[in-house]
Design brief:
Number of strands: 0
Number of domains: 1
Radius of gyration: 39 Å
Shape: rod-shaped
Number of helices: 2
């Protein structure tokens, strides 16, 4: 067996092996990207739920504190002999509305944040799907390149087995000048 035959055989084997391992790596990368995207989405959803639960608890506490503040102001007005009418009533109503606005702000902030987190979760899933699709096309490209390499190495093998390099009959090649200047 000639060196050319051995080299061509090794080239074919390495092209097939390289193609196979490259495809397996691309499949593993796609699976990893999809799993990572799903995990990230799950974490974002859990964080959104946590933000909402925390906001609900903070709102409950704020309402309790607001009731205490209104009761304290009523008690101060009562000790002073003021009735809850007119300016005192307006002051209590204004305080109550302002304190409720604080409660509403807590929910608005948490709601906006949880909506953002759910959007991030959806984006993560979409990115995982896109990575899987991109990997699929990369696999097709790797397969085509591998087939081309195997075909090229097969032609080299054919040439070495038939005594000709890549199927070219050297005896029919045109004459040319050699390095030393002579004509062949």
């Amino acid at each position: 067996m000639s060196f050319g035959t051995i080299a061509a055989s090794v080239a074919i084997a390495s092209a097939v092996g390289g193609t196979y391992f490259s495809i397996q790596g691309q499949k593993a990368a796609a699976k990893g990207a999809q799993m990572s995207a799903e995990w990230n989405a799950d974490q974002a959803r859990k964080q959104a739920k946590f933000e909402e639960d925390t906001a609900q608890e903070n709102m409950r506490r704020k309402r309790e504190n607001n009731k205490r503040e209104i009761a304290r102001r009523r008690a101060m007005g009562g000790r002073s002999g003021l009735k809850e009418t007119g300016a005192v009533g307006d002051m209590l109503l204004d305080t109550s509305e302002r304190l409720q606005q604080d409660v509403d702000d807590i929910w608005r902030t948490a709601s906006t944040r949880s909506t953002q987190l759910r959007g991030e979760a959806n984006m993560s899933i979409w990115e995982g799907q896109q990575a899987k699709a991109a990997s699929k096309y990369a696999i097709y490209g790797t397969l085509a390149k591998g087939l081309g390499s195997v075909a090229s190495a097969g032609m080299d093998l054919k040439g070495s087995l038939g005594g000709q390099a890549k199927g070219i009959d050297v005896s029919k090649a045109p004459k040319a000048y050699t390095i030393d200047g002579s004509y062949k």
